[in-house]
Amino acid sequence: MGEIESDGYGDREAPAPRSLASAPLTIQPPASQSSLTGTRHQPQKVLVLILAIAIMGVGLVMDSRWVGLAGSVVALLISAQILWLPLRRLLLDFVTEQERMILLGSILGGIALLGLLKQVGVFDRIGGALSGVGWDAVGALGEVLGAVGQILIALLAVYIAWRQYIISRDLTIQQNTITQQQTIDSYFQGVSELVLDEEGLLEDWPQERAIAEGRTAAILSSVDAGGKAKVIRFLSRARLLTPLKRDLRLGRVILDGRGGYEEDRLNGVRVIDLGVMLARADLKETDLRWTDLSEANLIQANLSRCDLVKANLSRTILCGSRLCKADLNGTRFFYGKAESASPRSRIEPPDYRTGKHTGAVVEDADFTGAEQMSDEQRHYCCAWGGSKTRTTIPGGCVGIANKLGR
Fold first, then answer.
1. How far apart are CA 143 and CA 404, in angstroms?
2. How far apart are CA 137 and CA 293, in angstroms?
3. Which of 18, 144, 321, 352 is the most buried (most CB within 10 A)?
4. Cα(337)–Cα(346) distance, integer angstroms
5. How far is CA 10 from CA 2, 4, 15, 16, 44, in A?
6. What's the chain's Rg over C-alpha atoms?
7. How confident is the prediction along the chain (406 residues), in pLDDT tens digits per residue?
8. Are 262 and 244 in contact (CB under 8 A)?
């Protein structure tokens, strides 16, 4: 029995609460079960589809239009029913709701636009305009456009091939640069281990010096201008190109008392003698500052636009070399005074006090546009460069005698 409730209008009996047992329960079949149910019907649909295809084939063989049409329609409907669920699931999985709305709106909007154009008579006007067109001219124009298209395609193919060549060339240059740097690093390490013994002194054995010179000649012949400059700077800063004073009995280098090795320009021995390694070498636009190239053979070498600040070119053979627009600030061509200095001699020893036979051989060298050439450098080059060199020296050679005589 329910309880008696009282309100302002009288007493009434409250309804008894319903028990949970009396509430109806609705059991939903699981999604897997529904999919399995649909899957069970798939073989039946496939059999019906095969039967419809067979009926359509019979109609085609018997030339019966209605039999073939009935089979085709049934086969089309069954195929659409089989494909509908997978396609719908694929569409829902890979196309978002916003994209579906955009696609549907685009299709319906296009249909609406076509209907509007039809209603206002645009298609009729277009048809009337096309009825008077000379189709022979249109066909000729189409052929011309086709030929132009083929030409453009050929040009595009040429451009693509050219771009591939440029990319391949850049990759090759980059790879060669990396390989060259690795080779130079290996050379630095090898020479360092060869010319230094356990006590840290420059090696005095002639055979090891000869091996070091052989390695240097090999590396200088296999690298470009920048690589040559790196090798020369390394050898110069390591004092391997400078003639050093040595003990006459043991061959060991002698310290100068200031933390370095003592130079001996007259009788010293170089660890590595460049000799003719740089003859006709291409060293243009490289950094050769503070390098020691004294007594090296640079005949017909290209030193254009080189930075030769403080470089030592005394007794260097520069016959036919190009020093166009090179920076000659502080470059040493000789020792002593310019008035008494003279080029190296094959038979006479140099005199580093007066400068006699200590100068570079500058005959036929080209100094066109050379920068920061001092008066002493200009005087020496005018005096010993010959008539051809004198015409290329900045500032001219007026008042300076041609001591070379030719």
1. 77
2. 78
3. 321
4. 21
5. 16, 10, 16, 19, 68
6. 49
7. 444 444 444 444 444 444 444 444 444 444 444 444 445 556 777 788 888 888 888 878 887 778 778 888 888 888 888 888 888 888 778 778 888 888 888 888 888 888 888 888 887 787 777 676 666 777 787 888 888 989 999 999 999 999 999 999 999 999 999 999 999 999 998 888 877 766 545 556 677 788 888 999 999 999 999 999 999 999 999 888 988 888 776 667 777 777 777 788 888 888 889 999 999 999 999 999 999 999 999 999 999 999 999 999 999 999 999 999 999 999 999 999 988 999 999 888 999 999 999 999 999 999 999 999 999 999 999 999 989 999 999 988 888 888 887 7
8. yes
